[in-house]
């Protein structure tokens, strides 16, 4: 096994070969992941194993400084004092269960906490009873996962490939995907490149946070990038939060393996949306790949409670629809940017297209975009190629945000079209068929940093993404005619049917009497309508009302308002030649079916736009000025949308008729040739 893919495939084959028939496929991950972590940890500890055991013997009965002394011997932030490892456990097959449990218990407390998240103990008895524990340990003992053989980055790939396969086998939500390392690399370049001078200073101390850290890839790549390419003396403190216990455990174990127990302790469990584990902290840099299109109903109560705090909480700008929580993560990150007077903060987040355009003016999504852009937080958006992620082939976008824009970027947003920046993979991984090369990452970073317009880059003023949605109304024009068909339709109206339904609780005799009276009234109304002149078409509603009221009065009938409305409804139809309907105060009524909306760019006057774009085509229309924006009080609701494809759209002329005709003739010839062969 010469590369991480071979090792990932081998570990996956262990699940399929050893656990099949005895464990449901949905449970494979519960066993394979902790065994992979344990094997990784023991490979790291192997060179100092004997020294740790010896030191532990020396320290028996001495509690003081025992932890730090054993860590010094192991040269790690963790240790294991057992005489066993996976290979030695095989020497005593009869007692393998007891010895394996003792071996796990001999790890340091921080590792035991990690292993406990997998709940492996619930499977040990079952594995042992089915003679699988020995076989499983035997298989894993032959996988070399030492950092000299498998780097931290490669180990991250192994975990993510295993998780991808487990999720795929269970048909889990495609939004539950993991971030390819080249996407992380691009995000890291875009996040840190502008700050090279700041980070090159003597021993800079900076904080990095990921609110949906998964296996910790974004955090570890960030630290490696800054130390390897900017300043080896930079002191980056890593923080994160992860809702999934397994990926949380993997993230902590990988940070322990990097030799920094402080960073491992800064990774917290539980949902960021409902339970912020770093509530008082702000950060210099933040990265995230929140789940695409994941429902946040489980966090609803806490999220809404937080939203009520306004901008003293995390969700003051608004709440998106419950089917997608990406913009909640983004608001969390913005709330955690270090204040400008403390150096400011920068954010890189990758999301699908939904946060760009979902939601009309006044919706939660639009209001969040509005707040972000009007606050001038949005620096750039980079559109990525499709088929980059393991479990989904959709397009995605990297947003770069900051509260300390360069002067040249103030009031502006850069859009970068990186959809063509990819190379085809030799072998696909699930839905991942494309990857971004290191050269392409460098070029995209250069495009962003140069802040110039070209075929891949556009620069727009903030207000170009905003619009004012105005309501256009037209007058209601109805004509009325009593017809047999309309009378039949009236019988189906709820208000008319309710005439013969008892409205109060009474004894059966009184109830029957009331319902009988109702039926007589129904029959009388129908008789009055049937007696009206069916040839007359009334072009004026008030005129029809007078005739109807007179007919009812002559018959000695009095009907309630809902019934009269039902009669007007079934006897009317829209008629452009009819008179305009007005209310009791003489105000023109609008036709709800003809109501329309216009999105006017914020840079334009709505009345000038209306006179130019609407009035010539609908002379009787008007702007409904009663519908105003809640924030600025002006007519129309303000909305923001970033229609990325619109800005980079290239017109493709249709094919010529001659070209299409030639193709049809060619296909006809091929079909005739095929039919000739078939007849032979």
UniProtKB/TrEMBL annotation:
It catalyses: a 2'-deoxyadenosine in DNA + S-adenosyl-L-methionine = an N(6)-methyl-2'-deoxyadenosine in DNA + S-adenosyl-L-homocysteine + H(+). Its EC number is 2.1.1.72. The keyword Membrane does not apply. It is an enzyme of class 2 (transferase). Residues 8-140 form the N6 adenine-specific DNA methyltransferase N-terminal domain. Keywords: Methyltransferase, Restriction system, S-adenosyl-L-methionine, Transferase. GO terms for molecular function: DNA binding; N-methyltransferase activity; site-specific DNA-methyltransferase (adenine-specific) activity. GO terms for biological process: DNA restriction-modification system; methylation. Residues 155-455 form the DNA methylase adenine-specific domain. This is site-specific DNA-methyltransferase (adenine-specific). It comes from Methanosarcina mazei S-6. The lineage of its organism: Archaea, Methanobacteriati, Methanobacteriota, Stenosarchaea group, Methanomicrobia.
């Amino acid at each position: 096994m010469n590369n991480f893919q071979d090792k990932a495939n081998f570990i996956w084959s262990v699940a399929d070969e050893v656990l099949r028939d005895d464990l449901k496929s949905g449970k494979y991950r519960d066993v394979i992941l902790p065994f992979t972590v344990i094997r990784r940890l023991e490979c790291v500890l192997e060179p100092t194993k004997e020294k740790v055991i010896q030191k532990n013997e020396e320290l028996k009965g001495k509690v003081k400084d025992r932890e730090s002394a054993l860590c010094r011997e192991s040269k790690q932030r963790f240790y294991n004092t057992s005489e066993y490892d996976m290979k030695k456990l095989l020497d005593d097959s009869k007692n393998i269960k007891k010895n394996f449990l003792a071996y796990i218990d001999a790890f340091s407390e921080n590792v035991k906490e990690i292993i406990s998240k997998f709940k492996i103990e619930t499977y040990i008895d079952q594995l042992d009873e089915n003679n699988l524990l020995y076989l499983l340990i035997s298989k894993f003992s032959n996988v070399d996962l030492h950092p000299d053989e498998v780097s931290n980055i490669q180990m991250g790939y192994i975990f993510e490939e295993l998780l991808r396969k487990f999720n795929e086998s269970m048909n889990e939500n495609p939004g539950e995907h993991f971030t390819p390392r080249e996407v992380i690399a691009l995000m890291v370049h875009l996040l840190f490149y502008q700050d090279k001078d700041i980070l090159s200073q003597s021993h800079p101390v900076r904080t990095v946070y990921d609110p949906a850290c998964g296996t910790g890839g974004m955090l570890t790549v960030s630290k490696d990038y800054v130390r390897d390419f900017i300043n080896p003396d930079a002191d980056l403190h890593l923080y994160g939060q992860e809702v999934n216990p397994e990926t949380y455990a993997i993230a902590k174990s990988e940070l322990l393996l990097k030799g920094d127990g402080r960073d491992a302790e800064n990774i917290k469990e539980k949902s960021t949306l409902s339970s912020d584990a770093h509530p008082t902290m702000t950060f210099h840099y933040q990265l995230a790949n929140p789940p695409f299109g994941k429902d946040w109903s489980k966090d609803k109560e806490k999220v809404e409670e937080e939203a009520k705090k306004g901008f003293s909480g995390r969700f003051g700008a608004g709440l998106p629809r419950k089917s997608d929580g990406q913009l909640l993560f983004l608001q969390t990150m913005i709330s955690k940017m270090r204040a400008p007077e403390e150096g400011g903060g920068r954010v890189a987040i990758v999301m699908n297209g939904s946060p760009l355009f979902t939601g009309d003016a006044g919706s939660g999504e639009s209001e969040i975009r509005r707040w972000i852009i009007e606050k001038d937080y949005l620096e750039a958006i980079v559109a990525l190629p499709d088929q980059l992620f393991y479990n989904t082939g959709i397009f995605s976008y990297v947003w770069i945000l900051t509260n300390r824009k360069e002067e040249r970027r103030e009031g502006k947003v850069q859009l970068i079209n990186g959809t063509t920046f990819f190379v085809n993979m030799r072998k696909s991984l699930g839905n991942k068929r494309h990857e971004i090369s290191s050269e392409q990452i460098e070029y995209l970073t250069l495009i962003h940093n140069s802040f110039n317009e070209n075929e891949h880059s556009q620069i727009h003023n903030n207000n170009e993404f905003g619009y004012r949605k105005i309501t256009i109304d037209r007058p209601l024009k109805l004509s009325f005619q009593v017809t047999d068909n309309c009378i039949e339709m009236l019988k189906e109206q709820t208000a008319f049917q309710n005439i013969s339904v008892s409205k109060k609780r009474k004894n059966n005799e009184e109830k029957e009497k009331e319902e009988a009276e109702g039926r007589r009234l129904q029959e009388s109304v129908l008789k009055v309508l049937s007696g009206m002149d069916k040839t007359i078409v009334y072009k004026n509603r008030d005129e029809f009302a007078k005739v109807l009221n007179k007919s009812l009065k002559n018959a000695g009938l009095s009907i309630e308002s809902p019934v009269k409305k039902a009669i007007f409804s079934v006897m009317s139809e829209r008629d452009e030649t009819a008179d305009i309907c007005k209310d009791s105060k003489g105000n023109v009524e609008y036709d709800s079916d003809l109501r329309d909306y216009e999105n006017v760019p914020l840079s334009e006057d709505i009345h000038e736009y209306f006179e130019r774009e609407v009035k010539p085509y609908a002379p009787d229309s008007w702007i409904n000025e009663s519908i105003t924006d809640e924030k600025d009080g002006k007519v129309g609701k303000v909305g923001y949308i970033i229609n990325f494809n619109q800005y980079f759209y290239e017109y493709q002329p249709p094919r010529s008729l001659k070209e299409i005709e030639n193709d049809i003739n060619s296909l006809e010839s091929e079909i005739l040739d095929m039919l000739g062969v078939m007849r032979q």
